[in-house]
Amino acid sequence: VIPQIPTSIRVHLGSPGSDAPTVTVPFADYIKNVASSEVYPTWPEAALRANIYAQITYALNRYYTEWYRSQGYDFDITNSTAYDQYFVKGRSFFDNISRLADELFNDYLRRPGFVEPLAAKFCNGTTVTCEGLSQWGSENLAQQGYSSNQILRSYYGNVETVLNAPVRGIVASYPGTPLRNGSTGPNVVILQTSLNRIAQNYPAIPKIPTVDGIFGSRTDATVRAFQQIFGLTSDGIV
């Protein structure tokens, strides 16, 4: 189960609960906009690459985990830097940043052994600091000769890069009909993979030994354990 790159992303032009418009933009153009708004085109290319990787990965984490949609919002990300990353509707892009975004928009970072894109936090590193990439710090490291991968690992630790992830339209995780014992298909694969990931943090949930897209007795037992732990009706229906 590999997260896929959305062809477009819905951006709320304000804080999550604000009465602000929401725009839909091509994902690659979204990254060009954010990068052109967040960093300087005169920085060394290694710093630009590192920042663009962080921006792509952060946006994909919001999209893949359905961070806002699971809260009832109809958008994927905001342009408020208090919550997300900066996006300016209608702005132009710098040529070198546009070129790099076109090259990198379907690559992202994740932890080894994990499925989801990394929640790749970043800040400017001067007026604001955080547990993540420092934008000005990345520029300084690039000036010292660090590659983009070395910059990223200096801030995020052990990460790996997923290259050329497939691109698709926006698709919600819920298939539209309940899954239960006897269900089969790719949606069951997603369910099994998600449950096994959740079981890493909740070891009382038994892991499904074979991710095969068949909702059988082992998947049913795992679903019921999940439901019991989270206070849901333990009926095996997802």
Describe this structure in words.
The chain is an alpha/beta fold and 238 residues long. It is built from seven helices and nine strands. The two termini are 18 Å apart. The mean pLDDT is 95.
List keywords for this structure.
two-stranded parallel ribbon, 238 residues, 3-stranded mixed sheet, alpha/beta, globular, 11% strand
How would you summarize the topology of this molecule?
Blueprint: E1 5-6, E2 8-12, E3 22-26, H1 27-38, H2 45-64, E4 77-78, H3 95-104, E5 108-110, E6 122-123, E7 133-134, H4 135-143, H5 148-156, E8 160-162, E9 167-168, H6 186-201, H7 217-229
Parallel strand pairs: 1-9, 2-4, 6-7
Antiparallel strand pairs: 2-3, 5-8
Q: What's the quick description here?
A:
This protein has 238 residues and is an alpha/beta fold. 37% of the residues lie in helices and 11% in strands. The chain has seven helices and nine strands, in the order βββααβαβββααββαα.
Helix content: 25-40%
Strand segment count: 9
Q: State the secondary-structure class.
A: alpha/beta
The biggest sheet, with number of strands, parallel, antiparallel or mixed sense and barrel status, is:
3 strands, mixed
Distance between the termini: 18 Å
Biggest sheet, strands in spatial order? 3-2-4
* 3D shape: globular
Order of helical and strand elements: EEEHHEHEEEHHEEHH
Low-confidence stretches: none
Gyration radius, in Å? 20 Å
Beta-strand content bin? 5-15%
Averaging pLDDT over every residue, what do you get?
95
Q: What's the tally of helices?
A: 7
